[in-house]
UniProtKB/TrEMBL annotation, chain A:
<keyword id="KW-0732">Signal</keyword>
<dbReference type="InterPro" id="IPR007245">
    <property type="entry name" value="PIG-T"/>
</dbReference>
<keyword id="KW-0812">Transmembrane</keyword>
<protein>
    <submittedName>
        <fullName>GPI transamidase component PIG-T</fullName>
    </submittedName>
</protein>
<feature type="signal peptide">
    <location>
        <begin position="1"/>
        <end position="25"/>
    </location>
</feature>
<dbReference type="GO" id="GO:0016255">
    <property type="term" value="P:attachment of GPI anchor to protein"/>
</dbReference>
<dbReference type="GO" id="GO:0042765">
    <property type="term" value="C:GPI-anchor transamidase complex"/>
</dbReference>
<dbReference type="Pfam" id="PF04113">
    <property type="entry name" value="Gpi16"/>
</dbReference>
<keyword id="KW-0472">Membrane</keyword>
From TrEMBL, chain B:
<dbReference type="GO" id="GO:0016255">
    <property type="term" value="P:attachment of GPI anchor to protein"/>
</dbReference>
<feature type="compositionally biased region" description="Low complexity">
    <location>
        <begin position="1"/>
        <end position="21"/>
    </location>
</feature>
<keyword id="KW-0337">GPI-anchor biosynthesis</keyword>
<feature type="transmembrane region" description="Helical">
    <location>
        <begin position="33"/>
        <end position="51"/>
    </location>
</feature>
<feature type="region of interest" description="Disordered">
    <location>
        <begin position="1"/>
        <end position="25"/>
    </location>
</feature>
<keyword id="KW-0325">Glycoprotein</keyword>
<protein>
    <submittedName>
        <fullName>GPI transamidase component PIG-S</fullName>
    </submittedName>
</protein>
<dbReference type="GO" id="GO:0042765">
    <property type="term" value="C:GPI-anchor transamidase complex"/>
</dbReference>
<feature type="transmembrane region" description="Helical">
    <location>
        <begin position="547"/>
        <end position="567"/>
    </location>
</feature>
Length: 629, 591
């Protein structure tokens, strides 16, 4: 009886939620929807497949779990992962994002300004940032340290290396505007593999046992060109905790013109996770296919819904996984009839970063920005008053000592005064072995600009012998810089008939941004055996000096000479005689028989032979005994 | 230079006489001798300085104090002062002090059986019937003696149920033993027709006996209540107490759905479980600081195999397969993040079997179905199997069931868990009456007061012993690795821990329970902190080989030179001196 009333209440509640949503949606911002507060923990799973212009396929898994705000957070949970709720509660986290990425998102080929790529393009390795709900700076730092340790335990990764103050920074506006309660750290060299995926899956109620996550066949997804696994959570008193777990993989289908889900993942989707509120698979094609004649591509598998976004940038095919079962697995097959001519949205400027200079002493970092105007013509005009704003955020480890006064900015090849271009700058210089250098810079470029470049000179520092990683000769990685374009917003608004947390997140005002390459800086690596070499060399020299000094002080030269003379008259010693004999034999000189009979007798006598045989015997026995034991 | 010439003169005689020459006209010089010997001596003098300067920093550990205290505790385990009093509410005429003696004897028989949490007891017997009031035996203090005048109790008891009597006696004890109401264990003895022994929820029991004349049998009966139950709780040995070294315990309750495609059960643990468990946690507060949390997990099959039993018409798991029941690969129970430091997490799992193995029962070795359908794993927690109703009737592939565990079912499961918690803490889940006349009143808190006292005593004692064994292993470890760095912090922690252990031991003998428990917890926490100090974990000690590798290249060749020079010089000096002495002697002879 109780369950009946409960169900009807729930139905009513869901219905009201549905009615209210459009109103609430308008408040949405920053990728998260401010929906009416659910009373129950919810989970939904989605997969978005998107053919990329270079015939690769992007598979974007998106899992959302929500936990309503309640006093029992961190104590009693039904669907929501307990560990995450406890993490949020213990460390008073407002927002957190952790990403594990292998490979680099190819902004040129896979798109740079659509919501999917701006939100999911992540720097290689591990990136972690968190916003805390803690007042003082010291407490935030202490909490950050504890958080890194907890996360490294939770995700089987060396996130704990972000603990030291040399590895994280506190950007004020370059990464995300905040009041000094944001901490940002990146580990560019962290390798990502299944040991990170398994704990990540553990946070899903069905793990990879059922539902969309069951497609995650390890060999298939790790074979991809790009692999980014992300956990983003947000907690506040109004909405409770929301976690978004996404996994983006770029896969290469065997056949360029025709691929299916089964071919990509080597697994089939046989049903939804029983716990999921909604379970959907989307296929997104850039460009408006609905209005065009559908002669470009052929889809096998009937979509439940086909729709366009408001500006007709893309077409979405929706498949509800509920309809499929063991007997009828969901397998979307895409056949391209014509060669793909997908136009995709590029970022206004293409950013890349590289090192200049040679040697192990100094060098300079350069960031080059190339206009992509040929593909986005409409955005620019050559009028004087048009400016494009660019924000650059870069963290540099302390051993790369950047001289910020050497900042030079070139616009279209000509050097420009920094005052003209830099609108806002915030520099936190590095402190040796204490903190990394952080550069946040807002630049203004004229719209007609074709290319720009920034250079910064640096000296390479020396590390203590303990501070080198095991493979010191490989060099040191400088984390990716973030280049964002605050004037460019990537958003896509889909009709409200699609209720999907993934597509909802597209509605938010996502600033177009791109991460640059990771830089590899070779530092002078010491010879790690050097201390021992130095010790042994100096000791030997000292011992030689000391020994000879003692001898010089002690010896009586005249007395020894006399002794030597008197000794000459007696028979020569054993060893000099042996040496002279051997040298004579080698030279082939026959000694006179008298001498031979005189001297060879004591050397090769039976006594000596016996001794040699005895020693050899002892050696053989010893060898035998040691080997047998 | 003079020395040189004299030596030349000395040897010139030698050359002439060959090896037999032993004449020397001058005294042998001591300059070179002095030089080489002084170098040698300076080396020898410098050696201690070198050793001192290359010494590894090792904070001195009070190993002697540790071993002495630990020896003391092993030979003489801490015993807590307890006072037992027997109160005769009916006329009783003991001939002599044989009653209290036989009580004490019975209790003493139990003492040897157990090592930790013993009582250093005193027994007193009071006869309080009508006008007569007699005290016998030794009381801890005069305030702890039963104040006579409880004669009306016998009448008041008439017609009340056990619960009522228990409460009545509690108020009587509180009233009449004044200051030590919380520390005295009492047995009320009265005469009556129905023989029975009832052990109450608090710190008293009452017995109705037909015949009070035989003081030995009465005494042994009273002694059984005191010794077997109030002092020992009827348990054989409570060695492990699942409490973290910082005194925290997290009870993690998980509902496991074996296969959510058959059915999904949720629970309202927050409402039902917390209400039912709150008094238990409150009762255990002096022993451990307990928090609880719950979660529901899905796709968590068991890992042992179950068989279809025709007779029972159910799937059964044999008890010998139970060790494999917990599926650590699929049951992501997780250690709790809120369990900070070295807290202990106890897992309590409700397992909902899938349709292919439902109903599922545990079969005892006797071939019967387990009544509780649950089992425990010591120091880990407990598992209870809950079969959805009518699951055997349902055919497979039916529509998905999403349901909530009925509250009354959850209550039953939580009762099982409370029983399991009692076992995990070393008590019996429920008492087996030794005879039909025995009765135990169960507390709604799960633990009766005297059981809590028992846990308290055992816990204090266990903490004390474990802190000392930790300290001792640490000191043996440190001694066995002579070149291991021992930080000052560790030394300090060891000292503080030892201090706390001493304090706890003293407080135990004085009977200050709160302070002894606190300091024993502190001693254990500090000892574990010292043992698991990060600097010890990353055993960064520089080995002897390392030491030799650094100093050998210098000292081996140099010491060879210095030693040889000194030996040669000394030899030569004595040889030359003997020649000189011979010369002097011959000179004297000739002159």
């Amino acid at each position: 009886m109780a369950s009946h009333t409960f169900l009807s209440l729930l139905l009513f509640y869901l219905y009201s939620f549905h009615l209210l949503r459009p109103i609430y949606c308008s408040f949405g911002s920053n990728g998260f929807e401010t929906t009416s507060v659910p009373k129950e923990e919810e989970f939904s799973e989605e997969l978005l497949l998107k053919p990329l212009p270079d015939y690769k396929v992007l598979a974007h898994f998106h899992f959302t779990s929500t936990s309503p705000p309640s006093s029992s957070n961190g104590k009693h949970h039904h669907l929501f992962p307990k560990s995450i709720a406890q993490l949020v509660k213990k460390y008073k986290i407002r927002e957190l994002e952790l990403s594990f990425t292998q490979g680099r998102w190819n902004y040129d080929r896979w798109g740079a300004s659509d919501p999917l790529s701006t939100a999911n393009g992540k720097p290689p390795g591990v990136e972690l940032w968190a916003l805390f709900d803690i007042p003082t700076k010291e407490e935030i730092d202490a909490t950050w340290r504890n958080l890194t340790h907890s996360l490294s335990g939770l995700f089987c990764a060396s996130i704990n290396f972000l603990e030291s103050s040399t590895s994280y920074s506190a950007p004020l506006w370059g990464f995300l505007p905040n009041n000094g309660d944001l901490r940002y750290g990146a580990l560019p060299r962290e390798a990502v593999c299944t040991e990170n995926l398994t704990p990540w899956l553990k946070l899903l109620p069905c793990r990879d046992k059922a539902g969309i996550a069951s497609l995650l066949d390890r060999p298939s997804i790790y074979r991809g060109h790009y692999h980014s696994q992300r956990l983003k959570l947000r907690s506040d008193g109004l909405n409770g905790i929301v976690i978004e777990q996404t996994l983006s993989v770029v896969l290469q289908p065997i056949d360029r013109t025709s691929w299916s889900m089964h071919q990509l993942f080597k697994k089939s989707l046989t049903g939804k996770c029983a716990l999921a509120k909604s379970s959907k698979v989307f296929l997104e094609i850039e460009g408006n296919l609905v209005s065009q004649n559908e002669n470009i591509l052929e889809l096998v598998g009937e979509a439940d819904m086909v729709t366009n976004d408001q500006r007709d940038h893309s077409t979405i095919y929706q498949y509800n996984v509920e309809r499929y079962s063991e007997h009828e697995a969901l397998d979307i097959r895409v056949n391209w009839k014509k060669l793909l001519q997908v136009s995709f949205l590029q970022a206004p400027l293409h950013a890349s970063r590289f090192l200049m200079g040679s040697g192990n002493e100094r060098g300079s970092i350069a960031i080059s920005l190339q206009s992509a105007r040929n593909s986005t013509k409409g955005l620019y005009d050559n009028s004087k008053n048009c400016f494009t704003r660019v924000v650059i955020f870069q963290v540099v480890p302390w051993y790369v000592k950047v001289y910020y006064h050497t900042l030079r900015i070139y616009v279209d090849g000509a050097i420009r005064d920094a005052k003209d271009v830099v609108e806002k700058i915030n520099v936190a210089p590095s402190e040796d072995k204490v903190s990394p250098g952080t550069l946040e810079m807002m630049l203004q470029f004229p719209c007609g600009m074709m290319s720009a470049a920034l250079t910064l000179d640096f000296d390479k520092g020396f590390l203590h012998i303990d501070e080198y990683p095991p493979d010191a000769n490989q060099g040191f990685d400088i984390p990716s810089a973030l280049v964002s374009f605050p004037d460019f917003i990537s958003r896509r608004i889909y009709p409200d008939s699609i209720s999907s947390p993934l597509l909802q997140s597209y509605k938010g005002r996502n600033i177009v941004k791109s991460y640059t390459e990771v830089l590899l800086v070779p530092l002078t690596t010491p010879d790690f055996s050097m201390p021992y070499n130095v010790i042994t060399f100096t000791c030997t020299v000292l011992a030689l000096y000391f020994g000879s000094m003692v001898n010089v002080l002690r010896r009586r030269v005249s007395e020894e000479e006399r002794l030597a003379k008197s000794k000459d008259k007696r028979k020569p010693g054993l060893i000099p005689l042996l040496i002279s004999k051997i040298s004579n034999k080698v030279r082939g000189i026959k000694e006179d028989s008298a001498n031979q009979s005189q001297s060879s007798q004591p050397i090769l006598g039976p006594k000596v032979v016996f001794k040699v045989v005895l020693i050899a015997l002892i050696a053989v026995l010893g060898h035998y005994i040691f080997n047998s034991s | 230079m003079a020395d040189e010439t004299s030596a030349a003169a000395g040897t010139s005689t030698e050359t002439g006489a060959g090896t037999e020459s032993n004449l020397r006209t001058t005294k042998p010089g001591t300059k070179r001798l002095f030089l080489t010997v002084s170098v040698l001596i300076s080396f020898l003098v410098g050696a201690p300085f070198l050793l001192k300067s290359t010494e590894i920093h090792r904070s001195p550990l009070p190993s002697a104090a540790i071993s002495s205290l630990s020896d003391h505790l092993h030979s003489n385990p801490p015993s807590f002062p307890c006072h037992f009093q027997a109160i005769f509410l009916s006329p009783f005429k003991p001939s002599d002090s044989s009653l209290s003696l036989s009580v004490a004897e019975r209790i003493r028989a139990q003492l040897s059986a157990q090592s930790c949490g013993n009582c250093n007891f005193t027994v007193s017997v009071t006869v309080d019937s009508g006008s007569s009031c007699r005290h016998e035996g030794d009381a801890a203090s005069a305030a702890c003696l039963w104040e006579c005048g409880g004669g009306g109790l016998v009448d008041a008891i008439e017609g009340r149920d056990d619960q009522g009597i228990d409460e009545l006696l509690l108020s009587a004890v509180n009233e009449r033993t004044g200051g030590c109401a919380g520390r005295v264990y009492s047995v009320f003895v009265m005469e009556g027709r129905d023989e029975r022994v009832v052990i109450g929820k608090h710190r008293h029991a009452w017995m109705v006996l037909k015949d009070l004349d035989d003081s030995t049998s009465v005494g042994s009966m009273i002694g059984t209540v005191f010794g077997d139950y109030f002092m020992r709780g009827g348990v054989e040995k409570g060695e492990y107490i699942p409490v973290g070294s910082d005194g925290n315990v997290v009870l993690s309750f998980s509902l496991l759905n074996s296969n959510p495609s058959d059915w999904i059960y949720d629970w309202d643990f927050q409402r039902t479980g917390e209400v039912l468990l709150a008094p238990v946690l409150e009762a255990l507060a002096p022993v451990a600081n307990i928090t609880m949390e719950s979660q529901v997990l899905y796709h968590a099959p068991k890992s042992s195999i179950s068989y279809w039993d025709e007779k029972l018409e159910a799937y059964v798991v044999n008890t010998r397969d139970l060790p494999f029941f917990v599926n650590s690969n699929e049951w992501h129970l997780d250690t709790s993040l809120s369990a900070s430091g070295r807290s202990k997490v106890l897992q309590f799992v409700v397992y909902v079997p899938s349709a292919s193995e439902c109903p599922l029962y545990i079969r005892t070795p006797e071939g019967e179905i387990s009544k509780t359908n649950a089992f425990i794993s010591p120091m880990w927690g407990g598992v209870a199997i809950w079969n959805p109703h009518g699951c055997s009737m349902q055919s497979q592939g039916i529509h998905l069931v999403r349901d909530v565990l009925p509250p009354q079912e959850l209550e039953k499961i939580i009762e099982i868990f409370i029983g399991q918690l009692r076992i995990l803490f070393g008590l019996n889940s429920n008492y087996v009456e030794p005879s039909p006349t025995f009765k135990f009143l169960a507390s709604e808190k799960g633990f009766t007061n005297w059981e809590l006292d028992l846990l308290y005593r055992q816990h204090t004692c266990f903490n004390l012993l474990s802190s000392l064994s930790t300290l001792q292993s640490l000191s043996t470890l440190v001694e066995s690795l002579p070149r291991m760095i021992v930080m000052d912090e560790i030394g300090k922690q060891v000292e503080l821990s030892l201090e706390a252990a001493n304090l706890a031991e003293r407080n135990i003998s004085l009977g200050i329970n709160n302070a002894s428990a606190l300091s024993s917890i502190r001693a254990r926490a500090l000892a574990e902190d010292a043992f698991f100090h990060p600097s010890i974990m990353s055993i960064s000690y520089s080995s002897m080989e390392h030491y030799f590798a650094i100093y050998m290249p210098f000292f081996a060749p140099v010491s060879l030179h210095v030693l040889l020079a000194a030996v040669k010089e000394v030899k030569r000096y004595f040889a030359e001196r003997s020649k000189y002495l011979a010369f002097r002697a011959s000179k004297l002879k000739s002159s």
